[in-house]
Every structure is written in structure tokens, then in C-alpha cells.
Amino acid sequence: MKYFVIGDEDTVLGFSLVGVDGQSVSKRAEALEAFDRALENKDYGIIIITEAVSDLIRDTVDKFLFTEAFPLIVEIPSAKEGKYKKDLRALVNDAIGVSL
Questions:
Q1: Cα-trace Rg, the chain
Q2: Which residue of 2, 15, 18, 85 has the smallest Cβ count within 10 Å?
Q3: Does 36 have pLDDT greater than 80?
Q4: Where residue 43 falls among pLDDT bands split at 50, 70, 90?
């Protein structure tokens, strides 16, 4: 099972350092494309998405969350919004269980 991250550039870069595929997005159309891409690949068991990106496509994310069981969707705080209570390293550790 693989992970896929959708978020801002810093978040995607951070996760890529531990081998997680991902796509950096900033617009609704990009977010929808990345989300669809992640869903199409059956190797991805967990999709990690930042709250800011999730809010761009909230209707799509919520529809998926309430109708599908797989893959698992995990929302994390967005780095650019300053909501991190933990540093990026701790978020990666928590999200994928890899200690950096």
C-alpha cells in the first residue's frame, strides 16, 4: 500500500523526502485533478490532503468520505496557513508512521 499527498508545495516536498508520491496544487481545478489521479491508482491506500486543499474541493472530498471505505482520506493542517501545532517532521511521522 502506498501513500499520496495533495497539498501546498512545502507539504508535498516534506512528504517526498520520505518517499511519498504527491502533487502540489493551489487551485480548485488542480486539486480535483490530483484527487482523481490519486483515486485512479489502486496502489494508493491512503490519500493525505491538506485542509486548505480539501476546502477547495470540500464537496468532492465529503462525498467520497461518506460513500467509500477505501482509500483512507487523511486531512492534515496546512503549512501556509500557520495552523501547524507540530513541525512538518512530526506531521509526517504521525501521518505515515515513519520516524525521521
A1: 12
A2: 85
A3: yes
A4: very high
Structural contact between residues 28 and 56, judged by C-beta atoms closer than 8 angstroms: yes
Tell me if the bond preceding 77 is cis, omega within 30° of 0: no
Q: How many CB atoms lie within 10 A of CB 77?
A: 18
24 Cβ neighbours under 8 A, 6+ residues apart: 7, 8, 9, 11, 12, 13
> DSSP code of 3?
E
- Average pLDDT (3-25) is 94
Sign of the alpha-carbon dihedral angle for 20, 24, 27, 30:
negative
The whole-model pTM stands at 0.79
- Measured CA distances, 30 to 17, 26, 55, 69, 94 (Å): 22, 7, 13, 24, 26
- The domains found in the chain, sorted by start residue, are 2-90 (3.40.50.10580)
Report the run of H or E that residue 84 belongs to, with start and end: none
